[in-house]
Each structure stands twice: as C-alpha cells, then as structure tokens.
Amino acid sequence: MKRYKKGSEFYKGSVILNGKRIFNPCVSDITAAGYVEYITPETARTLEDAKREKINAINLYDISDNVNQFFLNGSPLWLTKEERSSLINSANAKAITLKGDDISYEIWLAGDNPIKITSNSAQVIQMVSAVEAYAFDCRNVTQEHKSNVQAATTIEDADAYDNEVNYPNKLKLTL
C-alpha cells in the first residue's frame, strides 16, 4: 500500500481540499492537497551484511554437489559423515565375523540412486578412508574461505571473494 506524506504529517484517511474535508479521497485529491508519495528509505547495507551473505553462499556451496560428491565406478555419490562411520563399523564387523578382510560381500551404498557393490572389508575401509580424507580437505577449504571473508575490510572485498576455488578435485574411485 502506498503511503503519502505532507511535511512531517502522514496521510490518515482524509484530506482538506479547498476548505472541505474529504474522506477516502482518490490519489489525485491526496496529491492536490499537497501530499507526496512516501518512499521508505532503504537501509544501508553494512560490511557485516555483506560478510553474512558471503558466508551463507559459502555454506550453500559447501553442501552442494560441487563439493559433496565423488565418483564410484563412474557413478556420482556422496556419503555423509554418519554413513562413512557406519560403513567403517560394518566393514570391521564383517572382517571379524567372516574371519578375514578379503572375503567379498554385497554392500548397498545409499543415495538418490543406490549403488550395489561387491567388495571386501579392506577395500571398503580404503574407499571410505579416501572419502573421509577428501571431506576433511574440503572442510578445511570451507573454513579458510569463511576466515578470509571475516577478514574483509570492505563490502566490495566481501562481495568479490571467490568462495568456489581451491577445493580438491573430486575423487574417482573404482571397486
């Protein structure tokens, strides 16, 4: 809804025009009575606003497939921290119950397109360890980006900061 103001007085539903009070006047009567459209001044964007926006962009990029993805046998996949821990625990349990880490068994890796692999505990532990190291390296890059943005001294520096660089290459694993 538009607001109108005359000096320091805001329009409140009626105007005096030619000595007569008009209730619920049309816009032309409001402006004829000396009121002008009031436009709320924009709140100035601060350096803290710019930093907060860039940190949000860093967080969104950090959880995207640009970072959280690797390829297993050519298929894109991601394992959350919980899934990585579960797979390590399961691989260790299988190695104990099957009496060796070189006995193959089937594993379903969850995701939007679940992948079934046949592998052994040693290979699973090696794969998950590689993904864990990749995730650790990505986390370090993300934290460095956040630190660099917090160190920005101007809005322009914060806005111009490229938070999509320096991440490690995605893993390409084969089992």
Q: Which secondary structure elements does this structure contain, and how are they paired or packed?
A:
Elements lengths: L2 E4 L2 E2 L3 E4 L2 E4 L3 H6 L3 E3 L8 H16 L7 E3 L2 E3 L3 H17 L7 E5 L5 E5 L1 H30 L4 H6 L11 E2 L2
Can you tell me about this structure?
The chain has 175 residues and is of the alpha+beta class. The protein has two domains: 3-38, no CATH class; 47-173. Helices cover 43% and strands 20% of the residues. The chain contains five helices and ten strands. It has helices at 27-32, 47-62, 81-97, 121-150, 155-160; strands at residues 3-6, 9-10, 14-17, 20-23, 36-38, 70-72, 75-77, 105-109, 115-119, 172-173. The strands form four sheets. A three-stranded antiparallel sheet has the order 2-1-5, with no helix packed on it. A three-stranded mixed sheet has the order 7-6-10, with no helix packed on it. A hairpin with a 2-residue loop joins strand 3 (14-17) and strand 4 (20-23). Helix 2 (47-62) runs antiparallel to helix 4 and helix 3 (81-97) runs antiparallel to helix 4. It is elongated. The mean pLDDT is 92.
Produce a short descriptive summary.
The protein has 175 residues and is α+β, with helices and mostly antiparallel strands.
Brief descriptors of the model:
175 residues; elongated; alpha+beta; 10 strands; three-stranded mixed beta sheet; 2 domains; three-stranded antiparallel beta sheet; single chain
Largest sheet: 3 strands, antiparallel
Shape summary: elongated
Strand order of the largest sheet: 2-1-5
- Domain module tally: 2
What is the number of helical segments per DSSP (H or I, 4+ residues)?
5
User: What is the averaged pLDDT score?
Assistant: 92
Task: Extract low-pLDDT stretches.
Answer: none
Number of strand segments: 10
In percent, how much strand structure appears in the residues?
15-25%
How would you spell out the order of helices and strands?
EEEEHEHEEHEEHHE
The structure class reads alpha+beta
Radius of gyration: 30 Å
Quaternary state of this entry equals single chain
